[in-house]
Amino acid sequence: MKALCAVLCSLALTTAAHAASYPQKVCLKVEGMTCQTCSMTVKAAVKQLDGIEKVVVSPKTAQATVLFDGNKVTPQTITQKVNSIGGSYKATAMQCPA
Ligand SMILES: [Cu+2]
């Protein structure tokens, strides 16, 4: 399990903005959020995943910022989770705003 994780985590690290830091951070562009309830729905879904430290979702900017443990979850999994909610939500990884 450790060996597998080493491979997966190194993949996650290359896509994370702050590669060496913990927790890692990923920013998603989330289309389809029109109100506060949408952002809460997205936030709740992401928080169901193991290894999520913090989720900040803004319907105004259509962005989600997620702090996560790279040993437990990857940006790909987080993105897929948002896309699996259904409705019109569509998440894509993006460069985190400076
Ligand atoms: Cu809404």
Question: What order do the helices and strands come in, and which of them pair?
Answer:
Layout: H1 2-15, E1 24-31, H2 36-47, E2 52-58, E3 63-68, H3 75-83, E4 90-94
What brief labels describe this structure?
binds copper (II) ion, 3 helices, alpha+beta, 4-stranded antiparallel sheet, 98 residues
Summarize the structure.
The chain is α+β, with helices and mostly antiparallel strands and 98 residues long.
Descriptive account of the structure:
Helix content is 36%, strand content 27%. With 98 residues, the protein is α+β, with helices and mostly antiparallel strands. The protein has one domain (2-94): Alpha-Beta Plaits. The longest helix has 14 residues, at 2-15. The radius of gyration is 13 Å and the shape is globular. The model has no long low-confidence stretch (mean pLDDT 86). Bound molecules: copper (II) ion. Residues 34-35, 37-38 line the site of copper (II) ion.
